[in-house]
Design a protein that fits this description.
This protein is mostly helical. The chain is built from 3 helices and no strands.
Length: 61
């Protein structure tokens, strides 16, 4: 069925990773996201926080 729709197969954990990164990026509390995904907050920061858009603005140089 995926082939008919020309959709590439993705492993199930890809969706979990997408959800986790998106939830953190949307501003959900890391504690809430950890609870929803079965991770620890430490795991979130170690594996997902690098994918989240930062709100830090660089100064004009």
């Amino acid at each position: 069925m995926l082939e008919e729709l020309r959709i590439d197969y993705r492993k199930p954990y890809t969706m979990r990773h997408t959800f986790t990164s998106g939830a953190l990026d949307a501003g959900l509390s890391p504690a809430v996201v950890a609870s929803l995904t079965g991770h620890t907050v430490e795991t979130l920061y170690r594996h997902y926080a690098g994918n989240v858009r930062g709100l830090v603005e660089l100064p004009e140089l």
